[in-house]
Structures are given as C-alpha cells and as structure tokens.
Automatic annotation (TrEMBL):
SUPFAM superfamilies: Autotransporter, Pectin lyase-like. This is Type V secretory pathway, adhesin AidA. Gene3D superfamilies: 2.160.20.20, Autotransporter beta-domain. It holds the Pfam family Autotransporter. The lineage of its organism: Bacteria, Pseudomonadati, Pseudomonadota, Alphaproteobacteria, Rhodobacterales. Transmembrane segments: none annotated. Residues 401-708 form the Autotransporter domain.
Amino acid sequence: MQITGGSFDVHESLTLGAGLANAGTLDIDADVLGDQTLSNSGTLTLAGDVTGTVSQTAGSTTVDGTSAVSGGFDIEGGTLTISAATTADIDIAAGASLVVNSALTGNITNAGALDLQNDISGTWTQNGNDTVAVSADGLSVGSLAFNAGTLSIADATTFNVGDNGTSQEDAVFASGSSLILGQGATIAMAQAGDSLRFDSGSSLIFGQDATLTGHSILNGAVNAEASGIVFDGNVTVGSSAVVDMANGTSGDVVTVNGALTGNGGTVSLDVDLADGAQTADTIVATGHGLSSGTLHLVLEDQTTADTYGATEAGGLVLVDLEAGSTVTATVDATSFPTDNRNTYTYTLGNNSDGDIVLISQLNNAAAGLTGAIASAQSLVASVINRPTSPFVTTLSKLNEGEKCRPGGWARVVGGTANATGTATTATSSVETTTEARFGGIQVGLDSTCFNSLLLENGWDVSYGIIAGYNTASADQPIPGTGATAGMIDSVTELDMSQAYAGGYVVAARGRFSLDVQARAEKTDFTVNSSGLNPLAVDDTEFDTTAYTLSAAASYALSIPNQPNLFFVPTAGLSWTRTSDADFMFNDGSQIELDASTTAISFVGGTLARTMVNEANGARSAAFATLTHYVNLSDDAASTFIDTSDISTAIRSSALPDYTEISLGYTYNRELRSDRGSLRKFSASIRADGRFGQGFDSYGLTGQIRLQF
C-alpha cells in the first residue's frame, strides 16, 4: 500500500498484509498490526503500537501518543520526534535527527543529530561525530557507548547513567569521542560500583566544580584544568591516560572520593615555588580507602625568576593520599623546576603520611662547598700541618762550661690529596670528592740545652718558636641533579692560604723524647665556581682563625744483635679549634660556618738503619714509618640562609681515619768548631703515602737544620 499525497487519519486498528509507504500526511491513532514495515518519506504522526518496523528516508515522524514499536525505528533521513512515552529501539543514520521529548524505553544507535530532553532507559550508542548537548537537569540513560562524537553536559546539570542492576561498566567513551562537563555539571552513576571508561584517544573535559560519580577508568586525555573537580568514586589512571591539570595557575584541586589506582598514566600539574608562598595543583584521595599503583607526573613550573625558595620540611604536596597508600610517582628529569639562581634543586619524595610531595634540596654545589671547606680544614690540620715533631736533633759536642746551643731549621712540604665527604641536610645528601694540591714551608728557631739548663735533671730540652705559610688549591666536581643527573653540574674551586706562628718545647732523655707545640693560625679562602650551573661566587673570600695544640712522644728501641737497627714507636695527639665564619654569595644568600674542633690521635713506629762514615764522622739513616691516624672530630656544622632568611642546616663529614706509610733518609754531620760557628748540619727527606676510606694523599717533605 502506498500513500503518495493528501492527508489520512487512522483511528481504528490496522492490520497490514504488506508494507505501507507514506509520502503524504498520515496520522495514526491506533495500533498497526501485521508485522510489516511502515515506511515514511512524508509526515507521520503515531499514537499506538506497531508490530513491525517504522522506517524513514525523509520527512518527519512524531510519536504523540503512548506507543510501542516492536521492530524499532530505522531513520535514514528526516527527523524522529518522541513526544510521548515510547518503547522501541531507534537507529538514527548520519544526516537524520532525533528529538526525545518524552521517556524512551529502548536502545538508541545514533549517527545523526540528537536533541535529548527526556530519559532513555536503554543503551545510547553514539556513532556520529555530532555534539549532543544535554541541558535538561536530571535526565537519565541506562548506559552509554560513545564511539564518536561529543556528549556535552550543560552547566549545573546532572545526567544520570546506569540502572539499579549489578554494578557494571555503564559508560564507555571510545577513541575519538569526548565528554564535556559544564560548570557544576555532574555525571551520576546509578551505583557506586558502576564505571565510566575512557579509552585511549578519548577526551574528558571538566568545567569548574564538575563531578563524575562511580568508578572512573581513565585511559584517554583528561582536561582537568578547572578548579573544584570531583571524582565521586574510585579512579583508575590507565597507562595511556593524560590528566592535564596545568592551566598556568597553580593551586587547583581534583578530589577523588575513593581509591586512586595508578597504572602508569600521566598527570600534569602546575607548581609555583615562590619563596614563602608555594602552591601546587593537587590530587586529593583521602578518607575513602587505600590508593596504589604508579603515576607519571609532569610539572609545569609557574615560578617567577629569582623567587625560588625552600619547601617546608614535609615538602609541597602534589598527591594527597590516605595513610598507608602505596602510590609511587616518577618525574622526567627535565620536568623538575629549575631555580635560575641555582640555590635550590627539587626532587620527588614522600612525606610521613605517604603523600607524594615535591621536596627542595640545597643545591649540591652550595651544600658541597661546606664539605670542601671542612675537607680543606682537615687537610691543613692532619696532612699539611702533619702532627709531627719539630726538626730537633741531639746536641753537638759542647765546650767546657757550655750548656746551650742555638739552632734553626726549615721544612718544606708538598703533595696532593683526594678526600671524599658527604654534606647532609634534612632532605638531601650529596657525596663529593675534593681534589687538592698543597705546599708549605715551616721554619723554627730554638735553643737546645744540655741537662735542662736549670733543673739539671738529665733532660736535654729545646725551646723554640715556629712560623709557617701554607697554600692549597682544590677542585670539587659537583654531581648534577634533575636535568643534569649523571653529569658534572659545576666545579667549585677553592684556594687557601694560611699563615701561622707558635712555639714548642722538645725534651729528650736517653732514648725517650717528648715534644709539645702550640700555634695560632689565620687562613684565607677564595671561592670560584664554573660549569653548567655554577655557584653565585666570583673570587668570593672569607677567613678563619684557629689555635692548635699538639704533643707527641717516642722511644728508641735497639734490635737485638742488630747494632745499627732501631725501632722507634710514637704516639701523639693534635687538637685544633677553628673559629666560625660567614660566607656570602653574590645573590645575598650566605653560609654560616660554625666553630669547629679537629682532634686527631696517632700511633706509629719507625724502623731505621743507621750508617756511619768513618772518614768524616757523618751519621745517616734510612727509615720506614707506619702511622695510623684516628680522626676524633665531629662532623662540621653550618647553616645556609637564603635571601628570604629561610635556613637549611648542613652537616659535613670529617676526614676519615687513615694510615700513612713513609720512606725517608736522614743525614747528620758534626762540624769542626775551629771552622766557624756552625757546629752541626742535619737534613732529611721523606716520601709519604696516606690511605683511608674515601681518602688518599701523597707528599714529599724535605727539612734541614743548622746548629750553632
């Protein structure tokens, strides 16, 4: 049957023996039976049940009375309008349109335009690329399957998804599809266990204060740049997910009222590390169960240059988690904020609650500088000014009535040293090696008296004064962090000069000898830095003063049956007190070095073989010495203070215990008294090697003494 034109009204039940094609105007207010196809290309109005299919290639179909279409609607063109309760499946082709003004029981497969103003109790499958806007508040759909196109939920509108059946995956957005939530909009799942899945290639865009309920499974792109976003349920961030909270302003919060599960997805966050006013975009997942898995964070630095500061002790929270959660996070090295003043570096960590936080660390170079200074001070105390005795020898033959003889000596030392130390703050620890080259000269003048001059107790005693000057230069390579991890970030260059003066007493009786020294020292330091991220220094200077007291004792033992072989055990202690000092960087920050004490004990022994030149009476000896030094000092303490008066305490490790091996040669010759005032000439040369954990040094010492 065909209707090619005109208007027809049907008010009684109609049974079709074949299909009915309408190209005119047809108003059906009755049931259509016969399980045939009712096709329309004109105007069709329906208010009744159809046991068959309603198809349309053009024109319009309007359901204006309660209807049920067993074979469903197949709309290839034109418009289908549901204006009364309808039970049917509907298929809308591209170029066609559907208007749902009344409740629909059935499934929709849509590739055309859709105007949704009422509920759909079945599944809505979207295959077209059009945008479907939902502006009516409180609408519901049984389930969603978006294979293409965009679902846009208007501001302050709630759209309900799911039914009251078993928890299931009630909403799926496949690759190429999108969900846009307006300001204050909500997608509400029927049950907490119902899930929304966003596949790789899909997109989810949040407006301010928008909410998703149920279990959100994120594998696509999520624009979460607005504030007040809420996931009211569990969230899974899949490996292909990219959750973008970065909008150029830090401080936005995404709340997860459920467990957060990370499967390696990416989350982009804004951070602002301005000193004293630090903020960051934050994901908050607390109070609703333990979170787990892994996330990859991308940090967008919004900090104004020259304002970078230290984070609080607990760090700047990026992901706030329920205590006991096990979420771990990674950040690309190039993603960490970079302080243009090179004062702080930043890294990822966990606070005491298990939250993922951004932690500031004092730049390795600044922290390491304190270690270089500590190493230099220890090198001066224990290597350059080696705890050793003044160069005093036995008296030459005295004339009758003569008790004392004057003398003088000089000692020259040079060598290298490498010391590895650790500088530790509350949030970081950096190990560096200081490579030093040193040299020095020491002179002494004394008077050596037989039988103690005054007490006549059998002791030969020398009373003397000493003075000296040392220089050293050290390089300290600084390991990089963040973008320069695995590289040398900078090299700290430390030059040092020291002048000192003091006095000594040496007493000898038989084979036993004892010496005591006291010195006052002034040391000047000059610091430079070079490399990728150098310190803010340029021939920057500071100085310290120190006082040293040392003592040593030895005893010469003969070797049985070896008249020319002697063993001399030695033990001693050196104590140095160094003043505090302030070191200023060019940018106004500073390091305050606390006063420190260096205490070194040592024990050793020398094996010497003596030789006598019968022709001129000269005595010489070749010797080997083994000495072990024990550093009794505490770690050096200092404080870094940035330009905003934020302080960071630093502890720098002391020089380790070490063992010294020495090989040397001495020469002594008494001169004739009738050939001038010089009565005795003595000289020695010694090569030293020192070895300890993280420490090695090599040096050469030469000394000469003249006794008059």
